[in-house]
Specification:
- With 162 residues, the protein is an alpha/beta fold.
- 47% of the residues lie in helices and 13% in strands.
- It is built from eight helices and five strands; from the N terminus they run E-H-H-E-H-H-E-H-H-H-E-H-E.
- It has a five-stranded parallel β-sheet with strand order 3-2-1-4-5.
- It starts with 5 loop residues before the first strand and ends with a strand.
Length: 162
């Protein structure tokens, strides 16, 4: 049996969850039992978070089941097991200079859909998924994410539209 892919949320997924879109909510609920919590990068959260009480409540509820890597008050990336809690090296180490250069390369080389502009946060999401080795990105912009993945060329990253 192959290990579960690491779920990675982009901005569109968080918006869909905050808006209680049925498909996003169903997917999020199904992911609550995966060994690795859904990954929400800090810049993704910053793109969505606004001082609106209903939005704050919806996002705070969602984030209880997610991990924001390297954020001190976030849930750990890996869920507790009978043998303890494993560590996720990709989440613990963060991004280094070659990673930031890869993001820049992806921004410059991605063949985006017409009228789309390069988006550093989307490229960051694609690289975070690639660094996990086996991942699935939940997104409202599958064409954009796929364009960045085409440049990064990870072996086992999938894209799921929400």
């Amino acid at each position: 049996m192959s290990p579960a892919r690491v779920p990675v949320y982009d901005t569109g997924m968080l918006i869909a969850l905050a808006d209680r879109k049925a498909k996003a909510v169903h997917l999020h609920e199904a992911l609550k039992e995966t060994p690795h919590r859904a990954l929400v990068l800090g810049p993704v959260l910053a793109q969505v978070w606004r001082p609106n009480p209903a939005l704050v409540h919806a996002l705070a509820t969602t984030l209880r089941d997610c991990s924001v890597p390297q954020a001190r008050t976030s849930a750990p990336p890996m869920r507790e097991t009978g043998a303890g809690r494993p560590e996720c090296i990709a989440c613990a180490t963060g991004f280094d200079l070659p990673d930031w250069r890869r993001i820049g390369t992806a921004l410059g080389e991605a063949e985006l859909p017409p009228k789309k502009r390069p988006d550093a946060v989307d490229a960051l999401v694609a690289l975070a998924a690639a660094k996990h080795g086996s991942a699935v990105i939940f997104t409202s912009d599958p064409e954009d994410i796929t364009a960045y993945l085409s440049v990064l060329d990870p072996p086992d990253v999938h894209v799921q539209a929400v």
